[in-house]
Amino acid sequence: MMKLYDFLPCPFGQKVRIVLAEKSLTYELIQIDLAQGDQRRPEFLRLNPFARVPVLVDEDTTVYDSTVIIEYLEDEYPEPPVLPSVESSALRARARIFEDFADTSFTPQVGQLMAEMARAEGERDQGRLQRLHRSIERALDYLNHELTGQQFLAGDFSIADIGFAPRLLVLGELGLEAGLNRPNVDAWIKRMLERPSIQSLQGVTAEALAGV
User: Fold this and answer.
1) 81 CB contacts (<8 Å, ≥6 apart)?
2) Are the C-beta atoms of 1 and 177 separated by less than 8 Å?
3) Please, what are the domains in the chain?
4) How many CB atoms neighbour CB 71 within 10 A?
5) CA-to-CA distance for 7 and 54, rounded, in angstroms?
6) If DSSP codes are grouped into helix, strand and coil, which group holds residue 38?
7) Per-residue pLDDT tens for 61-111?
């Protein structure tokens, strides 16, 4: 059986868990408590010398980095797919571009907002909060535009959508309504929330907010 080493509030681990659920793959979840420094233990560093989760161990294969793990799962367990068909290289590129956008220009910003909001109200940097709000709002406006006439970002449900899901689910608790005045984003989120793989993340929202 596969093993997934993960910290439940981690959005990158959540990406992998969505894919595992979509593919109905069974695995053993081994929780790595980042707050307790489990990621720096020698036995974990042997799996990932960069001391980061998630890490997937599938028999004799060890893979780290959420994007690489998902690509491995897609190659090894192709059905059902989470990437567009190989016959559509343009759509596959679009899906990967949006996953990268989520990883670099959305998830980190929401994480920084979570960290700032975790401070006592009088200690929050209001200027930083405003900058983070603007950055996230711009990303949501862009997504609203890119979803025009589409149910998902790259054809069918794919890694393009999966990359955004973990942090989209916490925005409401941070005072941001992703779908407000963004009908395409609003409908997109509702479609994703119909999927059991996404519904399973809702239970860890509180953990994510508490674990910053």
Assistant:
1) 74, 158
2) no
3) 2-76 (3.40.30.10), 89-210 (1.20.1050.10)
4) 17
5) 7
6) helix
7) 999 999 999 999 999 999 999 999 888 999 999 999 999 999 999 999 999
Condensed to tens digits (0 to 9), the pLDDT of residues 63-74 reads 999 999 999 999
Query: Does the pLDDT of residue 212 top 60, yes or no?
Result: no
Which H or E run includes 62?
A: strand 61-64
Q: Which residues of 94-119 are buried (b: 16+ CB within 10 A; e: fewer)?
A: bbbebbebbbeebbebbbbbbebbee
Helix ranges restricted to H, 54-201:
66-76, 89-105, 107-117, 126-146, 159-162, 165-168, 183-193, 196-199
Residue with tokens 């790595």: 32
Q: Looking at the DSSP assignment, which residues form a beta bridge with residue 4?
A: 29, 56
Give the closest residue to 164 by CA, choosing from 98, 211, 112. Answer: 98
Threshold 0.85, pTM exceeds: yes
Where is 8: in which H helix or E strand? none
Using pLDDT thresholds of 50, 70 and 90, give the confidence band for residue 210.
Answer: very low
Orientation angle between helical segments 183-193 and 126-146, nearest 10 degrees: 80
CA dist 95 and 89 (Å) reads 10
d(CA 142, CA 34): 33
